Amino acid sequence: MTQRLSLVERIELAYRTWNEALAGLNDSDFQRMVYRHWTLKDVFGHVFAYLDLALQHVKSFQKRKRLASTRAPSYAFFNRREAEQLRSISLAQLRTDFDATFRDLMVLVPTLGPDDLKKRFPSQWTKSKYTTTLRNQLRETAGHMQNHADEVKAWRKTLKV
């Protein structure tokens, strides 16, 4: 019988898996194309944007009892906007920000109670009619990081990087 991972364990595992996927790469490898329009650095920025969004949601909940506003009608709009904004940030700064955001999130998540995690909120996307919870947002963040880590590992295997 397998034990279910806590939210903290789930996020920590995804963070470790992401870092393992990037381990040993040269800075120049981050300029390689991974998807049609995205380099590996762009993907890293994308993963960071969602980790940072999760942190902003937790901070917003603790301060105002609601999720942070993305000011985005959809995840596609958010992805495009964040990718553009993060392209100008150096890889070193992106790594620093990513690690700091992870550490901050790991301090705050354990302070959330069960009722906090299951409280329903309107979707973070302004054009969505769905509702969500902090638990769902944090699980999705971990799953998102894990999925991109798996994709980077497969990309590295294909290119033998």
Structure write-up:
It is a single chain. This protein is mainly α. The protein has one domain (7-159): dinb family like domain (Four Helix Bundle (Hemerythrin (Met), subunit A), Up-down Bundle). It has six helices and two strands, in the order H-H-H-H-H-E-E-H. It has helices at 7-22, 40-64, 75-87, 91-108, 114-118, 134-159, and strands spanning 120-122, 131-133. A two-stranded antiparallel ribbon has the order 1-2. Helix 2 (40-64) crosses helix 3 (75-87) and helix 2 (40-64) packs antiparallel against helix 6 (134-159). The model has no long low-confidence stretch (mean pLDDT 94).
> For the record, what CATH class applies?
Mainly Alpha
Largest sheet: 2 strands, antiparallel
Q: Report the strand count.
A: 2
Strand content: under 5%
- In the sheet with the most strands, the strands line up as 1-2
Write down the overall mean pLDDT.
94
**Which term fits the overall shape?**
globular
Amino-to-carboxy terminus distance: 37 Å
Query: What is the fold named in CATH at topology level?
Result: Four Helix Bundle (Hemerythrin (Met), subunit A)
Helix content: 55-70%
Class computed from helices, strands and strand pairing? mainly alpha
Per CATH, the architecture is: Up-down Bundle
Order of helices and strands: HHHHHEEH
